[in-house]
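User: My collaborator sent over this chain with a note saying "see what the structure looks like." That's all I know about it. Can you take a look?
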Amino acid sequence: MKKFLLAFIIPVFIILSACNNKPGNGGAITLKFNLPVGSSYNYNVDVSMQMNGNINGQALNMNNKMAMGYGFSATGDSAGWKKLNATIENISMHISGNGMNINYDSNQPGDTSDVVSATVGKVLGALKGGQFQFTMNDSGQVGSVSGIQDMMQRIMSSINVPGASSMASGIGSTFNDENFKQNIQQSFGMYPNKPVKPGDTWQNTSEMNNQGMILKLDNTYTLQSVEGNNANVKVDSKISSQGAMTINGTMSGTMKFDVPTGLPLDGNLDMNMNMGEASSQSAPLKMDMKTKITGKKA
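Assistant: Without extra context I'll predict from the sequence alone. Here is the result:
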């Protein structure tokens, strides 16, 4: 279960993406993070994933869906660093395959028909309403993160289902302050360092370390068009890794951003990855993940 959570949580955070000014300099715009202090933003991510292959010779065929809703609010601005407060507003997870059938929705009564479902419900249910804080500048660089350990403690203190502690520990080892900082950096670190106009492209390379597994993303972005306050950006990424588990793949899709604030309003991304042991010449796991991102100013 811990390996599955790692395989699921890492890509979810990889694909979270975000990108100000109306067209001016020769039709160019500046994409940057610019959520005004006192304003709020609702952000929802819906993920549909298929995983096929084998683990230790055992066939694996799973279909999973996960949805998370966040509320962000800008509470301060000091020397160019925005202070943001985030709340997990809802979370759902549906897993089917290999004899497993789990359905959890934080807006519905929990399933206690078996130990696994009850455990997942307790762990994920404890996340709803959880709050954390972070600072970010207009280029998407994360300064500080706080509140993550408080959320993990909230999970540990709220569960009494057998097996839940080990699952919570597995999530905690992945979802800690440093990893979360890296995830947020990956989410908002796509801004170009100069004005761009339709047809312009820019690149960046980023890395994320999760329990010794280093994921590298070589990203290329293209500003396709600007329609009023909306900027449409094409995303193309190559994914690779180093360490005991190798991952290689691609991600492609489109994102729509609100130009004045740099916030994502709509996105459709498709990630395809092969995962396997570094010592093996084969890639026993194949993953296809489709993500729908929606956002709006509250």
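A starting point for your reply to your collaborator: Confidence is low (pLDDT under 50) at residues 1-25.
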